[in-house]
## 1
Amino acid sequence: MTILILGGAGYIGSHTVYELIDRGEDVIVADNLQTGHIEAVHPKAEFYKGDIRDKSFLDEIFKKEKIDAVIHFAANSLVGESMTDPLKYYDNNLYGTMVLLKSMVENGIDKIVFSSTAAVYGEPENIPILEADRTEPTNTYGETKLSMEKMFKWVSGAHNLRYVSLRYFNACGAHVSGKIGEAHNPESHLIPIILQVPNGKRKEVCIFGDDYPTKDGTCVRDYIHVTDLAQAHILAVDYLMKGNSSDIFNLGNGVGFTVKEVIETARKVTGHPVPAVISPRRAGDPAQLIASSEKSKSVLGWKPQYADIEEIIATAWKWHKHHPDGFSK
Ligand code: UFG
């Protein structure tokens, strides 16, 4: 198979490329390198630098290469930024996907797997969250991802195209080799922020609120290893290759950890004290997000390998310890 990975220089995209290449597939990566890193692109992948909003760029790839399926990670994904600069998210996430779909339809490319998010649910009505639960995003990022899902639904109804949408919960961890990992600038995610303390980059971690209705008052999240996410994309491509119909799947471990529990585990893994201070709540944070991934398991045959938060944080630490400045060193 030849798979085109849009956003293959980013965090989850680069890990998916590694897994596909391990399986012996041919991989083509396209990335504009605005948030992705050229160093994260597997040396065996063919690389095209360009933007999904540039239709001629996509047309050229589809005409030149024989693509069996597309995996689409090329999007902006910072919740806070999406609230202060919503049009950036409509432009890249929604307009970019529209251009991509036009190019796919015109070039007869009919299978795509793409990144969605737990943010489509907003404040959940049930825990664990099922795919059929209410979707009412509380931020622009989640709204653009939900609109992408709807665009795929209507376009696939009109054209010969099938899709799988994967709604990730909290992606974390790093490749077992320690060669690639999470490197956002600025960083806003909990685990890399915690690990900046033992790396000497930050004095303490701020806990955003300890008055939530949870067991220790801090927010509960479902942390899922990036390699398990990568495997789910490959299973989703296999699912489409077998002729199955379009569908939406949650990807999480089905287990929740509080912010305090994650910090405590990081102290254990790194052997560093990691001071923490209680700060005000962060706007838009739901108290609890835990996935039901039963559908991914039963339909896609997905089996996450990293259920243990200590093991997940250990892979992240292996990466961050040796790359305190991300890919720049
Ligand atoms: N947190 C802190 N201190 C920090 C950073 C985070 O206490 O310095 C807390 C947050 O308030 C939250 C938890 O740690 O309760 C996890 O926060 P992250 O920023 O790591 O992740 P989010 O749960 O906010 O975001 C994730 C995905 C998003 C997705 C969102 C859905 O990363 O892409 O879930 O709500 F949109």
## 2
Amino acid sequence: MKKVILCAMLLGLFGASAGAEEVTLRAVSAFAEGTQFSKNFERFVEKVNADGKGVIKINYIGGPRAMPPFEVGNAVRTHVVDIANVTGAFFTNLMPEADAGKLFSKSMQMQRKDGTWDYINQLHNQKLNAWYLARQFHNVPFHIYLTKKLDKLDLTGLKIRVTPVYKDVVEALGGTAVTTAPGEVYTALERGVVDGYGWPVLGIFDLGWDKVTKYRLEPPFYSVEVGVLVNLDAWKGLTDAQRKVLNDAALWLEGLDEENVAVIKAEIDRQSKAGIQSLDFGAAEDKRFLAVANDAAWQSVIKRSPEIGPKLRQLGGN
Ligand code: 173
């Protein structure tokens, strides 16, 4: 009996001290360190490490030098890492609906209020074994950039570098889609393997693409989605105090999206100073482009996921 009590006491003590211990999460980013779509995540890591002293710590391993970007989603799923900064377009192989985030341009404050985040989080729980902690860049659109001038809104005969974000719209406009990770875009352009590429309005200077880019096709379309995903087992293993540090920092991170309006203005200016011309075929063609982009994307999501796709569309994607 004494032994049992002693054991229970020891276990109890051990349990208590384990719960009070600082936990360390291993993190990676699908985007290069210090570049546009890693920057705010890196600020988030700093904030967690400052606010979470003695409670929770993030050990940031790095970007694509540490792990190929298209493997990051699977690394979260299988708990090779605990937390990651990654866009859904990089793991549609595991979760066909993952790139639908680009069709939700509502603020995250709204998405958390109206049930959108909740539904998207559940999908990540079920399909990727991940907790959808935060979503960044809802107010940053994409463009197609070109090395050649077009005389009409038609990509026939052109090869365009894509990810699942742009594949459907590029094909709907007659282009040939060539999938590459961001790290291969420069070489593909330089060697003429592609005549253009899809990318957000921000970030083309980070990897030197401005040197091989001549035109930015209008209009801007969709909405960047870069999520912060936590392996679901890791998430469930955290204490309330540890989760609170992450949640508070996640809301703060989402709030950083307010900076994007000014950042976009400055970046467009920088692009034109770098000699990149805006290619615009007028209001009617812009409207047609957006309709084609929107329809092609939803059709593709619904085709890949016939049950969930329509539900996502109903949730107020565009
Ligand atoms: O690689 C990409 O073009 C891509 O899909 C993406 C998604 C979000 C942010 C930046 C790039």
